[in-house]
Specification:
This protein folds into two domains: 80 residues; 151 residues, Ferritin, core subunit, four-helix bundle (Ferritin), CATH 1.20.1260.10. The chain is 70% helix and 0% strand. It contains nine helices and no strands. Helix 5 runs antiparallel to helix 8. The longest helix has 41 residues. The N and C termini lie far apart (98 Å).
């Protein structure tokens, strides 16, 4: 059984330490005010910059030494006290507002936390889709399946171009095609994962794949045709994904961010293809 007298003495020591922290904080602020006044005085006297610097340096060193001595005498720094879990400040110190205090009314929480907790317990079979989800879920799943089909078609097209590339710039282009194919596959994975989170089923069926996709699958007869078709496909994806992101808006920010991440890489792919096309044309002109 705990001795109440020992417990009270221990509590008194903790509160005393906290009061020391409050006193130390006030003294430190006073010293800071003194330093500011000192700098203002020196500025008004138009002293030489080097002289001001020397005096400020000496003053700072003295202040640092004083603070160090105070910390040594108390045995614990403010940081270590916080780590020990002192969450209540002393009677002379600043107190922090908590939820429900008038000081917090200027920044209200969007929804009462109890309401959020109650909603989370309802329809738990919906997983990540909560009552706060405002988008048309079926429409979003349909759009994501179109994105999934588009990314699969782009992956297949890039893979074909990787292995079919021939000519003077074939190695450079093939490496680029391979990297893009890998990234398009990753985009497909992102879309499929989000579809499942929304309670849908990702459509990987080969039947109707091209019709679901926004971009086309064009093999290309030569290296230039391959690069051109890849650039056209990227431009199609950029426009359609931009519209999807705008449609989602704030109704489904998670899906919107996924689409925006894919969109950013598609824009990079378009730049890459444009660069390859320009390089190939310049090489052909030089060899003409």
């Amino acid at each position: 059984m705990l001795d109440m007298q020992v417990l009270e003495e221990a509590f008194g020591e903790v509160m005393g330490t906290i009061d020391d922290l409050s006193t130390y904080r006030q003294e430190a602020l006073l010293r800071l005010d003194e330093q500011i006044d000192r700098l203002a005085t020196l500025s008004q006297q138009a002293m030489h910059p080097s002289s001001v610097s020397e005096r400020v340096t000496r003053h700072n060193r003295g202040m640092a030494a004083s603070i160090s001595r105070r910390r040594d005498s108390r045995g614990l720094s403010a940081v270590s006290r916080r780590r020990q879990g002192c969450s209540t400040l002393g009677k002379n110190s600043m107190t922090w507002p908590t939820r429900g205090d008038p000081a917090m009314t200027s920044q209200p929480f969007l929804t009462d936390i109890k309401t959020i907790r109650d909603r989370a317990r309802q329809h738990i079979e919906d997983g990540a889709v909560t009552a706060g989800y405002n988008a048309d879920r079926e429409t979003v799943i349909q759009l994501l399946n179109e994105v999934l089909a588009t990314e699969i078609v782009c992956t297949l097209r890039y893979k074909r171009h990787q292995y079919m590339a021939t000519g003077l710039s074939a190695k450079v282009a093939a490496d680029e095609f391979q990297e893009h194919a890998r990234q398009e596959q990753q985009h497909a994975d992102w879309a499929a994962e989000r579809i499942v989170q929304l309670g849908g089923e990702p459509d990987f069926s080969p039947e109707g794949l091209v019709s679901r996709a926004h971009a086309e699958y064009v093999p290309g007869e030569n290296l230039r045709d391959m690069i051109k078709e890849d650039l056209i496909a990227e431009r199609i994806a950029i426009d359609s994904y931009r519209e999807i992101a705008a449609y989602l808006g704030d109704q489904d920010p998670t899906t919107r961010r996924i689409i925006e991440d894919i969109l950013a890489q598609e824009e990079e792919h378009a730049d890459d293809m444009q660069g390859l096309l320009e390089g190939l044309d310049a090489l052909q002109r030089n060899n003409a």
